[in-house]
Design brief:
It contains six helices and five strands. By secondary structure, the protein is α/β, with parallel strands linked by helices. The protein folds into two domains: about 1-45, no CATH class; about 50-155, abc type-2 transporter like fold. Strand 1 (about 50-55), helix 3 and strand 2 form a beta-alpha-beta unit. The longest helix has 21 residues, at about 25-45. It starts with a helix and ends with a strand.
Length: about 160
């Protein structure tokens, strides 16, 4: 044990003398960590915001209106568009990043079975956005009622 500590001290002393003697090493050991701290602290943001989303509810009821109001109230979604088509043109144009489909028997299934199905179609070309968005939407919609059964469809390319 004493031998290991003595070796660690010797290597630490050698490296300290080397860094103090070489100005470039000193600058790199101080500037690079500060630069990385600034970049990862302020410049790179992993928050999701200004996301366009398609919303299709085939039966306008209180539950579907409540879900749409929740999505609008967050401020995360800049545009909530009525989007009933299944084509992928808006995904390719980057107008929307996700779609939510609520079936016409949503209210009937909710009352009868105690759970309903919401289908999320999410753009999977950016895995970080997909992960953040799917988790965020699941928490947002399922926070008050834990009765929804979420189905995901991920679009690539």
């Amino acid at each position: 044990m004493k031998n290991s500590i003595r070796k660690i001290k010797a290597i630490s002393l050698k490296e300290t003398i080397h860094i103090l003697r070489d100005a470039r090493s000193l600058i790199l050991s101080i500037v690079v960590p500060v630069f990385l701290l600034i970049i990862f602290g302020y410049a790179i943001r992993m928050d999701i915001e200004n996301i366009g989303i398609g919303f299709a509810s085939y039966e306008q009821n209180s539950l579907s209106r409540e879900i749409k109001d929740k999505l609008q109230a967050t401020g995360v979604f800049s545009k909530i568009k009525e989007e009933y088509s299944l084509d992928e043109k808006k995904f390719l144009k980057n107008e929307i990043k996700a779609k939510i489909f609520i079936s016409s028997d949503f209210k009937k299934n909710f009352i009868k079975r105690g759970n309903s199905e919401l289908v999320f179609i999410i753009d999977g070309s950016d895995p970080t956005l997909f992960s953040s968005l799917s988790g965020y939407m699941t928490r947002l919609i399922g926070e008050e009622r834990n009765v929804f059964e979420f189905k995901y469809k991920v679009l690539f390319n």
